Amino acid sequence: MDILVCVKRVPDTAENEIEVNSDGTDIERDDLVYSVNEWDNYAVEEALQIRDKVGGSVTVISVGDEESEEVLRREMAMGADGGILLSDDAFEGSDGRGVAAILKAAVEKGNYDLILTGAMADDGAAQVGGMLAAMLDRPFASLVNHIEVVDDKKLKVGREIEGGNQEMNEIDLPCVLSIQTGINEPRYVGIRGIRKVASLEIPVQGAGDLGIDPSTVGEAGAKVRRLEYFVPDLGEGAEILEGSTEEVIEKLIEILKAQGGIK
Amino acid sequence: MAEIFVYIPHKDGVADDAALEMVAAARKIDAEAPLTALVVGDGADLDKVCEQAAAACAKVWKVSGEAFAYPNAEVIRKMLVNILPDKAVVLVAHDTFGMDLSPGLSIKLDVPFLSDVVDIEALEGSSLKIVRQEYGGAVSTRVSCDIGDGVVINVRPGAFKAEDAAGAAGEVVDKSAEAGDLSCGRRFLEVVEAEVGDVDITKADVLVSIGRGIEDEENIEIAEELAEAIGAVVSCSRPIVDAKWMEKSRQVGTSGQTVKPKVYMALGISGSFQHLGGLKGSPFIIAVNKNPKAPIFQVADVGVVDDILEFVPELTEKIQEM
Question: In what order do the strands lie in the sheet with A239-240?
């Protein structure tokens, strides 16, 4: 099975405090630590496990600037067979639909049985997988937390739904799935693994290579536009306990007692 | 202004809370726009849902049939593309069904998509201004979109205050015959119910809940010791289950358990809306987190800005000494 996994380079929220910059046009990007979007990493691991079971290949692809290459390389160090970077000034400022359109053009240049995306990324929109599937006219399932290859025509997939329940579906290949975290345990990538793939070529494709009209993507084609970033209104917010650790603990124990939190 | 359609989520003949929240969202877009409820399903219960929808919307489109007995987003998307008029404004709840349905629906209708909307600010001409959140709620964004040709909007459950269903006495129209070709490449098989764990966190009065801030599986005993000292049960947020450090049955959130304790201690939990969606009955929330900007502090009653790995053992020790 030939599998394409769409990945994105994002600020690592576990390593950074995300703050709004001084004029509200973006988050503060100085000194941010970036990594591969967590959901995408699970998607790559799942693709590798499927390939190792039934054969085929795994290609990782990303829409982004040249720095996204490091993310592709990291996923190749995990075991992906190849990477493709879709990069062009014309792609900058794309909305979700623009990103999906760029990916669609790249998908059509290949021959993939299965396309995986993360269920969501840093902007929390959870949209690119479903849009890409609709553009390609392929079946789609979101929030996938289980994949079983039935044969070369179909998969059995579980979707995570409310209440910890799982919705089982049969889905025809070729299809697009968006992957939920927790579906597997992504393998660790060491420095040595990354060094091994350091010299591998990652082809870069732009609007011209993909036959994309630049006015339909990027800032120019975006129908959904961010006007500003801001810190949400805190409302009342929590009463923050101040003082030395001992004082805070004393206050907290009083509060716990009053609320019935200590039996 | 074009018609606004609200897709009504329902179960066992009862419309979900999100239905009336979306009606409120629709009014915020345009209080005058004609409102149509989309009620899709199968069986006798569906008419009860139509009745509830008719109390809040001027019109109800009922679409029934075996193909809709379980809400398969792939089937429902095809039907909606067949029945919706041009330039429709479509509101869907941003739940696991809406996330499955809407991105593709926007492509098939050739309209923009606004995902996980938490507020609607203004409609000026055909330009709609809305609010979203990014980075797990750490920052908000004000977003604009031209909805003149229609739009699909996913509305975050719980973000809008439900409107009273003020006896709209809406007319129910059966659109089932217009559903059209529904063939698709994904077939629903079954729902596998969540496994019941050794401890039922939904019954606990006091929960000590841990998140990413616990950092390592070995550190979970810090929470277990505190829980033992105060007579609480340990629960967790999603990353702990993803890491396979605790059972799924211990997870609080929309994709885990819905809990209603009296006191909820959130230790090293940032407080995503998916996590908070699993907290019902207004518990007293105590948050401990080393990041003073963690969204959990917006909803908590009391907060401590400290590293849980240092603070919690000291707290436990003091309680044990009592």
Answer: A239-240, B302-305, B284-289, B263-267, B206-210, B233-236
